[in-house]
Amino acid sequence: MQDTTPRPASRFERRRARTRQALISAARQILAETGESTASIQEIAERADVGFGSFYNHFETKTALFDAAVADALEEFGQLFDGLTEGIEDPAERVAASVRLTLRLAAFHPEITQIMRLRGLVHLHDDIGLSPRALRDLTAGRESGRFRIEDPAIALSAIGGALLGLLQLNTVTELDDHTGEQMAELVLHMLGIPVDEARELAARPLPEPS
Amino acid sequence: MQDTTPRPASRFERRRARTRQALISAARQILAETGESTASIQEIAERADVGFGSFYNHFETKTALFDAAVADALEEFGQLFDGLTEGIEDPAERVAASVRLTLRLAAFHPEITQIMRLRGLVHLHDDIGLSPRALRDLTAGRESGRFRIEDPAIALSAIGGALLGLLQLNTVTELDDHTGEQMAELVLHMLGIPVDEARELAARPLPEPS
């Protein structure tokens, strides 16, 4: 994930930060491969190419590492979306673009996509990744009257879950951009956008990943 | 899960069936507690109160047992829903009732609900549990013109995912029947049911679990 903290001053601190990130990267790989957090600390340290002993300098438990790894992947995805959708003012168009981009990016970001699919549901209401961004857009759209929803958290549950369902469908059938458009339309209907407008919004040109 | 196969003839076969079911029940408990399939065969056998050696008389691998356990739980839930919703003719009302009942039953069937939440997504397009039943209703509703959807599999991804998102929200906030009604309305909007009709359908009396 993009590091926005200041560069650590000393060589020791820089090495420490690299070791921590190596452990997180190893845990991300393991999560993407298996979805389970059952590898031993020895296996994780070997994959990270760090000494077994240094694990506990960074994480109290394996669970803490895997939680950090999921947060790291989800937050990287959230920041990627910030860059892609920042020019879209209308919350409805932004939601539609996010749905379509999630599917389109699955091929380019397989590790993050796997982690989202296999571990994302239990983090759906955490304050990391796409969720807080979606909640912000849903709340804004509700206040402006763009979305006809009562409770943004329930809408987030529905849309986030639907996106995970789409990622799951993508593992059993090869999906194309048209599928993303269909799902975007369904989500817009859910938010109270009329059918014709939903179709138009879901077919707009997408921002290009750089 | 309700056993619909004929009663095995011999005492040996009955004991064999009991052992198999004990292993499945143990695996269901473990899945509901942790969501992970990492308990050792020894632990599973102890919890099932069967000999370690008998495991391999029934399952080739631990994965095979856990797959069977998930299938067993999902199918039990599907059969429960068959009983509850069999009198509902309109596919829209049936979908709305299923959404609301899933949330209402979470308190009465915690084990199945946990297994659905923690392991359900990857089985969303399998031919077990609520999924094939929902796909049948979505397909029928599409053919009759009741639902304005293009591809029932995409609608299933959206609705199934949304339901799992709701079960997840239920673990972080205590939800009530009104939440279930809201989610049912969102799902009906998605399927193209007009807003006023969706509200009325989502507020109808629910079948009572027996």
H-E string of chain A: HHHHHHHHHH
Number of domains of chain A: 2
Largest binding interface between chains:
A-B, 42 and 42 residues
Question: What is the C-alpha radius of gyration of chain A, as a whole number of Å?
Answer: 19 Å
In the CATH classification, which architecture of the largest domain in chain A applies? Orthogonal Bundle
Q: What is the overall number of helices of chain A?
A: 10
Mean pLDDT of chain A: 92
> What name is given to the CATH topology of the largest domain in chain A?
Tetracycline Repressor, domain 2
Corresponding CATH superfamily of the largest domain in chain A? Tetracycline Repressor, domain 2
Question: What is the structural class of chain A?
Answer: mainly alpha
Seen as an oligomer or otherwise, the chain set is homodimer
Query: Helicity of chain A, in percent?
Result: 55-70%
Tertiary shape of chain A: elongated
Number of strands of chain A: 0
- Sheet with most strands of chain A: none
